[in-house]
Specification:
The complex is a heterodimer of chains A (316) and B (277).
Chain A: E1 10-19, E2 22-32, E3 37-41, H1 48-55, E4 63-68, E5 83-86, H2 98-108, H3 114-123, H4 138-150, E6 156-160, H5 168-183, E7 187-192, H6 195-201, E8 204-209, E9 212-218, H7 219-226, E10 229-234, H8 238-247, E11 252-254, E12 259-263, H9 267-276, E13 283-288, H10 291-299
Parallel strand pairs in A: 3-7, 3-8, 5-6, 6-7
Antiparallel strand pairs in A: 1-2, 1-4, 8-9, 10-12, 10-13, 11-12
Chain B: H1 30-42, H2 45-68, H3 85-109, H4 111-118, H5 122-156, H6 162-190, H7 193-213, H8 220-229, H9 231-237, H10 250-274
Helix pairs in contact in B: 1-5, 2-3, 2-5, 3-4, 3-5, 3-6, 3-7, 5-6, 6-7, 6-10, 7-8
The chains are: A alpha/beta (316), B mainly alpha (277).
The complex binds adenosine-5'-triphosphate (ATP) and magnesium ion.
Organism (chain B): Streptomyces candidus
Pfam families (chain B): ABC2_membrane_4
Protein name (chain B): ABC-type transport system involved in multi-copper enzyme maturation permease subunit
């Protein structure tokens, strides 16, 4: 059996999307496999939502293609039975009740109306099924969007920033939901701009920046290669300390607030070295760079909207 | 051996389907899309409001005018049911609004993305919307025009030929529903409720208004054409009170409107395939 016919597989190849002059997605190729949660990570404006819209055939790629189970999305006659997607929880008519919103979607795919009650139950919206969705809170809207994604009991699920604006309980619920969906053998593709969020849920990572692929790796591999460990030192005798380190062939870099950072040497060895030269230490602490920092480093060149560190001066 | 209480973690095998749903697969057809659009149109308040206002305008104005004219003799050859014309002319506005809203509100709210994710065939979505809207509007307009014709006849007495009855109910309802369908097509092209409604009101009113100001001799032919083919004039034909002598007959105007609708919906089909949502 060829890879292209594996059920639940999403394949993206050479995907490019231009909006006029702006290239939102640039030659993107990767695939998403069943049975795991694949995180789709990138800073704001990286092209995540654009890519997902092209996966669902909402936007037309300038070049390149997307195949789901080896087919184009438009070839899926009852797409809700293959793919459940939550791109934007507000993409509904607020004047319609939750029940009717789900009913009209179910009907269009020939899904029995009894599924509507079931998914409302799964997301815990049964009590407000007949309320108009415009009065729903952010969390309730998100749950309704997830109910719609689950309607056809699909083998593939796609979520665009599902935890945005949710309270801790809601975030916890979505995390567990995604993991359990993947554990059932489904394909789960979820975007985020928070590395820390992905570290908790994703098994595999696809990282993009400015529309280009930056990394396509397992979570474990990403952690192994990207988490730098170092030792932070602070001393009132910084000059002497630098001297001593230099003579011992150890490179130290100055960090903010009078601290020094040393890579690749243990805290014990550094402490003993300082003691031998009778240098007072105010801090000697092993540090682990967070995945968030690793992610920021990876995407540093590609971040589109940098915040200015300092406000530009007002010139007269 | 006992079965484990928790399901074993999923093992990935190349070539083995990931997840197979117990929900049975059934081919979705245009009928399913029609059921979906019917649920949509009946589950929002704008449908109740616009069609309700239309019925009130059609029946209310017709009955009021009939009551006011109880003691006045109608011109020779004019059937009393033609007094329903003004109400229907006003009733066009809510029908246009509903036609536009049926599709443009999906773009306004973002619902269209959910709709097209569930049914990627743009043609099927547009066809289902058009059919459901047309049938619903036709049915409600038919009820309203039948009611008002009966009310006017009851108030004023007099006899009305069968063909005029048919024109004032079925003919008018078909024409109004087609006009609403045109609004739906325009809504699909413009994707913006207020813009599409404005365009449609212009289409209805502008030719007649322009004709009123074409006083010069050289424009006489254009003026005559606008007078005969403007939408209010074509509507008047169904009541046997055309505004000119050489204009279309009732069935010809239905054909003309049908052709216009086909043109605009065809354009909407073509354009939809090229555009992002
Ligand atoms: N319809 C459009 N017309 C023009 N430019 C667009 C359009 N949609 C997206 N873009 C541009 O494409 C780029 C990618 O946008 P996209 O929404 O895909 O990013 P994202 O990764 O989802 O960001 P975020 O994390 O903020 O949601 C942005 O620079 C955006 O301005
Ligand atoms: Mg986005």
């Amino acid at each position: 059996m060829s890879a292209s016919s594996v059920a639940g597989m999403i394949e993206v190849s050479g995907l490019t999307k231009r909006y006029g002059e702006k290239v939102a997605v640039h030659g993107l190729s990767f695939h998403v496999s069943p049975g795991i949660v694949t995180g789709f990570l990138g800073p704001n404006g990286a092209g995540k939502s654009t890519t997902m819209r092209m996966m669902l055939d909402l936007d037309h790629p300038t070049t390149g293609r997307v195949r789901i189970d080896g087919k184009r999305y438009a070839e899926l006659r009852e797409p809700l039975k293959y793919v459940g997607a939550l791109l934007d929880a507000k993409a509904l008519h607020g004047g319609r009740s939750a029940y009717h919103h789900l009913l009209c979607l179910a009907q269009s795919n020939g899904i029995p109306a009894s599924r509507v009650g079931e998914v409302l139950d799964v997301v815990g919206l049964t009590a407000v099924a007949n309320k108009r969705s415009k009065n729903f809170s952010l969390g309730m809207g998100q749950r309704l969007g997830i109910a719609a994604a689950l309607l056809g009991d699909p083998e593939i699920l796609m979520f665009d920033e599902p935890v945005n604006g949710l309270d801790p309980e809601g975030i916890h619920w979505i995390r567990n939901l995604m993991k359990s969906l993947a554990a059932q053998g489904r394909t789960v593709f979820v975007s985020s701009h928070l590395m820390s969020e992905m570290a908790l849920t994703a098994d595999h990572l696809v990282v993009i920046g400015q529309g280009r692929l930056l990394a396509d790796t397992s979570m474990a591999e990403f952690i192994r290669t990207n988490s730098r460990s170092y030792v932070r030192l602070r001393s009132p005798q910084q000059e002497q300390l630098l001297d001593v380190l230099h003579r011992a062939g150890i490179t130290a870099v100055t960090a903010g607030h009078g601290a020094l950072e040393v890579d690749g040497v243990g805290a014990e060895e550094l402490g003993e070295l300082a003691a031998r030269h009778q240098i007072v230490l105010h801090e000697l602490s092993p540090q682990q760079a967070s995945l968030e920092e690793a992610f920021m480093q990876l995407t540093a060149e590609s971040v589109e909207y940098h915040a200015h560190a300092q406000p530009t001066e007002w010139r007269t | 051996m006992t079965t484990p209480s928790t399901p074993a973690p999923y093992q990935q095998h190349p070539g083995v389907p990931g997840y197979v749903s117990p929900v049975p697969l059934r081919r979705a057809t245009l009928l399913d899309a029609l059921a979906s659009e019917w649920t949509k149109i009946r589950s929002v308040r704008s449908t109740i409001w616009t069609l309700g206002v239309m019925v009130v305008l059609v029946v209310g104005f017709g009955a009021l005018i009939a009551l006011a004219l109880r003691s006045v003799d109608l011109p020779e050859g004019e059937s009393p049911v033609s007094l329903g014309f003004v109400g229907v002319l006003l009733g066009i506005i809510p029908v246009i609004t509903l036609g536009v809203m049926t599709i443009a509100s999906e773009y306004g709210t973002g619902m269209i993305r959910t709709t097209l994710t569930a049914c990627p065939s743009r043609a099927r979505v547009l066809a289902a919307k058009g059919i459901v809207f047309f049938l619903l509007t036709f049915a409600i307009t038919l009820v309203a025009t039948a009611l008002v014709s009966a009310a006017i006849s009851g108030i004023l007495g007099g006899s009305t030929a069968g063909s005029v009855w048919l024109g004032a109910t079925v003919g008018v309802s078909a024409y109004v529903a087609l006009l609403g369908l045109l609004a739906l097509g325009v809504g699909s092209l413009v994707r913006h409720s207020a813009g599409a409604i404005t365009i449609m009101i212009g289409v209805v009113l502008l030719p007649l208004v322009m004709a009123l100001f074409m006083m010069s001799e050289g424009l006489r032919d254009v003026q005559q054409f606008l007078l005969e083919y403007s939408i209010p004039s074509q509507l008047a034909i169904f009541y046997g009170t055309p505004m000119g002598e050489d204009g279309p007959t009732g069935w010809e105007s239905l054909g003309l409107m049908g052709a216009l609708v086909a043109l605009v919906l065809g354009l909407a089909f073509l354009v939809q395939h090229k555009r992002d949502v």
